[in-house]
Design brief:
By secondary structure, the protein is mainly α. Among the domains are: 2-132, no CATH class; 298-459, Rossmann fold (3-Layer(aba) Sandwich). It is built from 15 helices and 5 strands. It has helices at residues 2-13, 34-48, 58-61, 68-85, 87-100, 103-109, 119-129, 134-289, 298-306, 326-333, 344-351, 357-375, 410-420, 434-442, 450-459; strands at residues 339-343, 378-383, 399-403, 427-430, 446-448. It has a 5-stranded parallel β-sheet, with helices on both faces. The longest helix has 156 residues, at 134-289. The radius of gyration is 47 Å and the shape is flat. The two termini are 85 Å apart.
Amino acid sequence: MPDQAHATEDVAEEPGEEINEPLLSIEPEPTMPEPVRQRVVVLAAAAITGMPLDELPSAVKRVAKFAPNRRARLGGAAIAAQLAADPVFRQRVGTRAIDASGELGAAVREGTTPAAADPVDVAALAYLARPAGWSGLVAGAAETLKADADSAAFSGRLVAAEHRAVRAEHERAVARVEAEKLRDELNRLRTEADALRDEVRALGKSLRESQARERKAADTLAADKGRATRAAADAEAELRRLRAKLSDAELTASGARLVAKEARAVDDVRLWLLLETIGRAAAGLRRELALEPATKLPADFVADQAADRPGVAGKAGARALEADDPVRLDQLLALPRVHLVVDGYNVTKRGFGDVSLEQQRGRLVSGLGGLAAQCGAEVTVVFDGAEKMVAVPGVPRGVRVLFSRKGETADELIRQLVRAEPAGRPLIVISSDREVADGVRRHGAYPLSSDTLLRRLSRG
């Protein structure tokens, strides 16, 4: 086929010779469906690959160096125009497309169509190769595509009609239920109306009796008015006495509240002194018992289960009191073997949420490293890992960084850390989440807000 095309071009270019019969038959271009036209352009764009430039029309040469997909997208209109206007170019492209299509191309060349073949591919190859009856294949593809579209539209209308029928039936059922309710309400209202009529009759009788009693009472009203005036004067005097007594009671209550507030302050001081005494006694007992320091802390076991890599061990820590003053945080961090657990993103999004998550993590871990170096506490910071486990580069000494697993939140991991600690060990939990604070408080931890830690870190 390519040799025949070259021969045709050579004969046409020699001057003085006349071609009596064309080698290629020209048939009118059919109206192709858009899917077939797009498939023709894709096949032609792929077939152009490797063709010599002298066999390509000038309009196609500009896109010949592109990749096939880009060639079809950018030069599709030019390729389609050349296929329709240049039979020789179309024959060359068709031959290469048929050869590249394997068994389907061979069947189309012979004028047969496999039953399972896509009608769009068959029509596109038939348009390029132009075997006998090719126009019928293109028309058949158009009819098949139109029939599929009509079938889809009919199915859509049928489904819509079924939905409308179901909705109408539902509305009729609702209307029946509403009608039953209205009938019940009407019967109830009728019953109430009957009862009201009976009540009106009874009230009319009672009104007449009351009017009779009123006339009788008017006769005694003059005598009672004098007694009522004296009673009102007595009541006014009693009211003034009660008001004076109420004022005295309010003054007494105010003094009692002041005394109670001072008593609470004294109790707080005594409690703090008791905690200091217990801490020092525990340190002395540890020295007396000669207890060796633990090589692995309880939070390390939780870290091994909650992350794909071993946690970074920090130093030990304490349970906090609920307050927002960073001085209180310093007091709690001074307790022996204190453990500070931080809800990472709860702190970073309140303090510096305008930067990326990676920068948030870096700033918080860096600040906690300085805090751990100052107080010697065990510091564990927990972040939500979600679908992707991330790492924090350059974790400072004394800080453990944990990420929750898939399907687990940072709040749940914090509760595991709290439950893992022995009873009586001081443990501080930093989070402004009320649910987290209430949960860890029930297990003996001291929750503090994220603002407390942020103010402490800003102080340096």
